[in-house]
Structure formats: C-alpha cells, structure tokens
Amino acid sequence: MVDAGPVELEGANAVVTGAAGGIGAAFARVLLERGAHVVLGDLDEERLTATADGLRGEFGDRVRQRVGDSSTDLGVTELLAVAPGPVDLFVANAGVFRGFGLEATDQDWALSWEVNVLAHVAAARALVPGWLASAAAGGAGGAFVSVASAAGLLTQLGSPTYSATKHAALGFAEWLAATYGDQGVQVTAVCPMGVRTAMLEEGETSEQPDARLGMRSVVSAGEPIDAREVAEVALAALASGRFLALPHPEVDRMQQQKAADRDRWITGMQRFRTSLES
C-alpha cells in the first residue's frame, strides 16, 4: 500500500473539463486562487476563450486553455499536453443533460454515455499509470475528481440518460478508488443537486415536458447552490481523503432512506413525480 498523502494545490498542475462556465469555471477559479496552474478544456471555443481570458487577467500565465473533445483518448491527450508539466489533478466535469423519457434517441444515449462516462475513463486511462509510478517511486501520485450528480446516488426524474450515466460515472469513480486508492491515486466524487448554471436554466425553460419535470424535481428537493460551493466542497473532501462530497447535505439523508428501504423510496419518488406533474 502506498500513502501518497493529499495533493498539494500550490504549484500543482490541474486540468478541468467543461470549464467554459458553470461548475468547471468555478473549479478553475478556486484552484487558481489556491496556487495551481490550470488548463481549461471545453468544446465551446467562444465561451472557453472568454472565461480563460477573464481568469488570465487575474492569474496570468497559470491559466491555459484547449478546445477539444475530452470524451476521446486523442482529446484527452491533447488537453494534457497543454499543461506545463505532469498533471497532478484532473477534474472530470464535462457533462450533458440530454434525452428525456423513453423518447430519448440512440444519439441521446450515445452522447450521454460518451460525455458523462467515457470521458472519465479516457482521462483515467491516460493519467493513472503515471500516478501509480510516481507514488511507487515516493512521489505524490495524483488526484481524480469526478463531478457526478445526486442523480448518480438517487435518480433523475425526466431523463433516463442522465440518471443512468451519472450512476455509471459514480460507479466508475468507486471502482477507481477501490482499485487504486491505496496506491497513490486519490479519488473524490462530488454529487450536487441543483446548481445555478446554464444547464439548470435551460432545463427549466425547455420545450420538453420531461426536461422541465427533471429540473422542477431538482429545485424542489433542495435549494440550488452556487457553482463555487460545489468546487469548494469537492476540494475539501479531496484534502481530507474522503471519497464522497455532498454539497447538499440532504442528499445524504435521501441516499440513506433509499438504502434502508428501496421499495418505500421508489413509492415516495412516484408520489413526488405525481405532485410535480400536477
């Protein structure tokens, strides 16, 4: 067993995907404030450039950016290459909320799987071998933050694609922790409910009834929080060696109720869904 200790953020090289806005941009800012060098990755070049330029005005050349698809091995390789040195911390944040009800198309399922799950796999495949070698040689190893969702612990009304893929993302993070967590690879999964981001706003105003149902369920179950709070709670969990980070404390109660009596919990979710639909 290798105990590499918590990652030191001062001077660390970090990569954040989905960093053009929302939770990803918040992670980038908090990491920069704590002294890290940060590479911001996203597919949206215009928004990414605006976010990176704003941060660069405050933090100078510790800010770098790369437009690309983090769900592919090539995209991850190109993203990591922008860092000024070996990457110490990877924040797998890019995600999509797409595909509603049984009408979700094969394309909805494929995109959700690629972005919400396979992007995490591609990053781990690229980084974990180097982190293991570093820790075995007495180095710091590395840290992987999976931005999952409370949907991965509970469910997501309205969207089977989001619910299933966030369960899968959390499951992959658990596997990483169980397999490599005692060999110098720290893993933390952060599972928020509603966060004040563009994704939440788009869901609330969507023409899709199931999309609106999904977002109503999120904001009804707990007060939406700022994206920065998600980043701070996740990094606090990482620093203390905890796997699960829950920015909404009520999610812990909900998951315990689910585990104690799943049938009763499902019945409660049915009632909750009916109340939202009416």
What this model shows, in words?
The protein is an alpha/beta fold and 278 residues long. It has one domain: NAD(P)-binding Rossmann-like Domain (Rossmann fold), CATH 3.40.50. It is 54% helix and 12% strand. The protein has eleven helices and seven strands. Strands 3-2-1-4-5-6-7 form a seven-stranded parallel sheet, with helices on both faces. Strand 1, helix 1 and strand 2 form a beta-alpha-beta unit. The model has no long low-confidence stretch (mean pLDDT 93).
Summarize the structure.
By secondary structure, this protein is of the alpha/beta class. The protein has one domain (13-277): NAD(P)-binding Rossmann-like Domain (Rossmann fold). It has helices spanning 22-33, 45-59, 73-80, 106-136, 150-153, 160-180, 198-204, 209-221, 227-239, 250-260, 262-277, and strands at residues 13-17, 37-42, 63-67, 89-92, 142-147, 185-190, 244-245.
What share of the residues does DSSP label as strand, in percent?
A: 5-15%
CATH class descriptor: Alpha Beta
The best one-word shape is globular
Order of strands, widest sheet: 3-2-1-4-5-6-7
What is the percent of helical residues? Answer: 40-55%
What number is the mean pLDDT? 93
Number of helices: 11
CATH architecture: 3-Layer(aba) Sandwich
Number of domains: 1
Q: From the helix content, strand content and strand pairing, which structural class follows?
A: alpha/beta
Q: Looking at this structure, what is the CATH superfamily?
A: NAD(P)-binding Rossmann-like Domain
Ends apart, CA distance between termini: 54 Å
Largest sheet: 7 strands, parallel
